[in-house]
Design brief:
- By secondary structure, the chain is an alpha+beta fold.
- The chain has a domain of 61 residues: Winged helix-like DNA-binding domain superfamily/Winged helix DNA-binding domain (Arc Repressor Mutant, subunit A, Orthogonal Bundle), CATH 1.10.10.10.
- It is built from 3 helices and 2 strands, in the order αααββ.
- Strands 1-2 form a two-stranded antiparallel ribbon.
- It is rod-shaped and about 110 Å long.
- 14% of the residues are buried.
């Protein structure tokens, strides 16, 4: 009797990529406030008087255009503030925090 042999199969290739981990989004009730100098800017804007661009320059040590860019970044992140002009003082004041 003749032996029958199975045809050789090639081994399956294993993926070299690590399995993707699922990251759950943070709960919406817990807003993420930035730290560092962006957080410092938010603290200054949250005061009743707000903060002028020159006051933000003194607080952060950044140049004026850098502070204005940081305000733009905060606005893009969902923080709402406006420029309030009273008695020749133009101050940015925070209206609504994200979340």
């Amino acid at each position: 009797m003749k032996k029958t042999t199975k045809p050789k199969t090639t081994a399956s290739r294993k993926s070299t990529q690590a399995p993707k981990k699922k990251i759950s989004p943070p709960p919406e009730t817990d807003p993420v406030l930035p730290g560092g100098k962006l957080g410092l800017i938010l603290d200054r804007l949250a005061t009743k008087a707000g903060a002028t661009a020159d006051e933000l320059v003194k607080a952060t040590g950044w140049q004026r255009h850098s502070n204005l860019g940081a305000l733009s970044k905060l606005k893009a992140r969902g923080f709402v503030f406006h420029l309030d002009a009273q008695n020749e003082r133009k101050a940015y004041r925070l209206i609504k925090m994200k979340g």
